[in-house]
Amino acid sequence: MNRYINKLLFGNSYRQEYLCISRDDFKESFDIILTNADYSFTYLVTGKNILLGYKPLLLGIIASKDSELCRHLESTSNHALHFRSKEKSIAILELEKIKTVDASEDKLFILRGIKGQHHFLNSFHRMMNSLRGQLKKKPAGNIGLEGNLYEQVRIAYSVPRNISLVTTGGGIQCNIFPTDLHGRINEKFYVDSLRIGGKACLQVEENSKMLISEMPVEKHAEVYKLGKNHTKDYQPVSNFRTNGNSVLWGLPIPESAIAYHELEVMSHFDEGIHRVFLLAIRNSQLLATAPSLSHIHSYAASWRKKKGIATDYYLR
């Protein structure tokens, strides 16, 4: 009965806030269109955006240096991203450009969220969810997302965001933890974002090297459980389920990994609670062929269910 009351009052068909999916099998995702204020410029950036932060919301847009997109982003500060389904905008993010990162033949433009609007749920359900959020007790150490910032994050997670595992350390001790604020810029560079002051972030800084492993969707529960390691010290490698070591640096590879990148820190910058690392790709290996692990927000999942878009979700 609680499930039906939850849907009636809050419009959300799922109890979990984030639902695991196979990115490879995910159908009918939103088209993401970048525009300027007067809509005189539009550009499809569905496969060119990387989520890098949630406090504030940070998105990276990849643009080839000789492209029209790059010239526009260089000359304009304020932008909007429209999340469209069948030519209709279901959500809009207003953003401002705050930084440009050089990445060989490409540039990564960092945009910070200003405001978000969406229609995943109707206005009554959005109001009820807002009230519930205000009354809900916050766990100790929780990063609060207040007001419109929460709506911006829900929009950003309305498309699949890949969850991979980071290995740092090496030798007889290491740490392995998940990341979903990351992505490959091109064949030479990668970007990942970690919480400033967290042990995971400090470990990456100390070592200047890390391994990012893509994981199969069937391992979703195991990957999520490793989230606690963001605040943990190094542990004996034997504490983790691993399958050999990486070719270049000998870092432990998580068991069942599909592929991995060996990365070296080139630079970083801070924004809000995030330290964003620019990393050079030193080696990449494909290990297996399997559907890769991603997740989306339950608001978008509820909207998809209402629209009759069949989707397989993996609940933890």
Structure description:
Strand 6 (78-85) and strand 7 (88-103) form a beta hairpin. The strands form four sheets. Strands 12-13-19-18-14-10-11-15 form an eight-stranded antiparallel beta sheet, with helices on one face. A seven-stranded antiparallel beta sheet has the order 3-2-6-7-8-5-4. It has seven helices and 20 strands. It has 316 residues and is α+β, with helices and mostly antiparallel strands.
Instruction: Specify the CATH class of the largest domain.
Output: Mainly Beta
In round numbers, the mean pLDDT is 92
How far do the termini sit from each other? 20 Å
Strand order of the main beta sheet, please? Answer: 12-13-19-18-14-10-11-15
Oligomer: single chain
Question: How many distinct helices?
Answer: 7
Return the domain count.
2
Secondary-structure map:
Elements: H1 2-10, E1 18-22, E2 31-35, E3 42-44, E4 49-54, E5 57-64, H2 68-75, E6 78-85, E7 88-103, E8 106-118, H3 123-135, H4 148-156, E9 161-162, E10 164-170, E11 173-179, E12 182-184, E13 189-195, H5 199-207, E14 209-214, H6 220-225, E15 235-236, E16 242-245, E17 252-254, E18 259-271, E19 274-286, E20 293-297, H7 298-306
Antiparallel strand pairs: 1-20, 2-3, 2-6, 4-5, 5-8, 6-7, 7-8, 9-20, 10-11, 10-14, 11-15, 12-13, 13-19, 14-18, 16-17, 18-19
Labels describing this entry:
alpha+beta; Pnp Oxidase, Chain A; seven-stranded antiparallel β-sheet; 7 helices; globular
